[in-house]
TrEMBL record:
Stated name of the protein: diguanylate cyclase
Species per Swiss-Prot/TrEMBL record: Marinomonas gallaica
Ranges in coiled-coil conformation: none
PROSITE patterns registered for this protein in UniProt: GGDEF
Organism superkingdom: Bacteria
Length: 318
């Protein structure tokens, strides 16, 4: 009766091993397969009969043999399990995923545990690889990360122009000012740009046209800037450009180049073609600026001076 019971339990155990939704592979110390369950058969297309007594690296030549062999040898030597997360390596076995949500990968994401199998005499010459399908977890985490990145971008970006928003500008200006005060950087120049007579654009052509002008202006400022320059919308029709490692002389050259490009550009809108000009105020950060507010104020005063002098020009702060 006991022998029959043992045989029944062994049959149950074997049936569970074959049908459990986890991959089970047993290999010897020559990396040859001795057990290959139904999960592995279904996802690899290799039957247990074909897999048995073959090297794991022969069945899957795409596996990085040096990397995995080092893991396997470590488990054999230390007799302690090793865990391989999908975040370290997306998969060990290149199985296609049959789930509909795997937009980020066509292959199954896997967690793998490599465990030593103890013999009755205490020796270890076999290993068990347990393969978990974690595609749902990986895809959900990737989707959440994408959402978080988008939210982070939205928190730093002006919704209309896609430039940096005021908060991002303030942070960049503060970091630049602090580094300069500590003697770690410089020279730096700050430019404030204002669209001339923008209120009349809104009044005569409507706010949608005004928004279109702001969007095209943002593209012109971005395309005309160098890599490393910080371009943002300061508020309303005003833009701010932080020119790092730029003297006021070079900043004025930059400002005049942008001013001429805007003056010569034809802004095409649904209400017709428009000609727009801009005024610019520029200030180079120097020892006379005791605070961020003084630096920004000096650029702002230069802008007002450009307006008072007739607009469509650049004024550099004294």
């Amino acid at each position: 009766m006991t022998q029959q019971t043992d045989m029944t339990e062994l049959h149950w155990l074997f049936d569970m091993l074959q049908h459990i939704d986890v991959g089970l592979v047993v290999i010897n110390n020559n990396y040859e397969v001795e057990l290959w369950n139904g999960f592995m058969e279904n996802h690899s297309g290799v039957s247990s009969t074909s897999a048995r007594q073959r090297s794991l690296f022969d069945i899957f030549p795409s596996i990085n043999q040096n990397w995995l062999q080092q893991k396997l040898d470590t488990v054999l030597a230390l007799r302690t399990p090793i865990y391989i997360s999908w975040e370290q390596r997306p998969y060990l076995f290149p199985f296609k995923s049959y789930r509909a949500i795997t937009s980020i990968s066509e292959l199954m994401f896997q967690n793998v545990v490599i465990r030593p199998i103890n013999n009755a005499n205490g020796t270890v010459n076999h290993l068990c690889l347990v393969v978990y399908d974690v595609t749902d977890v990986a895809v959900n985490k990737a989707a959440l990360s994408a959402v978080n990145r988008k939210l982070d971008q939205l928190s730093k970006t002006d919704g209309l122009t896609d430039l940096h928003n005021r908060a991002s500008l303030d942070r960049a200006i503060k970091l630049t000012f602090d580094a300069y005060i500590k003697g770690n950087s410089g020279p730096h120049s700050l430019v404030i740009v204002d669209i001339d007579h923008f209120k009349s654009v809104n009044d005569n052509y409507g706010h949608q046209t005004g928004d279109a002008v702001l969007q095209e202006m943002a593209k012109m400022l971005s395309s005309g800037s160098r890599r490393g320059d910080f371009v943002g919308r300061y508020g309303g029709e005003e833009f701010c450009i932080l020119l790092l490692n730029t003297t006021q002389e070079n900043a004025k050259i930059y400002c005049e180049k942008i001013r001429r490009q805007v003056e010569e550009n034809v802004f095409k809108t649904s209400k017709g073609d428009l000609n727009i000009t801009i005024s610019l105020g520029c200030s180079e950060l120097n020892q006379a600026h005791d605070s961020i507010e003084q630096w920004v104020e000096s650029a702002d005063q230069a802008l007002y001076s450009a307006k008072d002098k007739g607009r469509n020009q650049t004024v550099v702060a004294d």
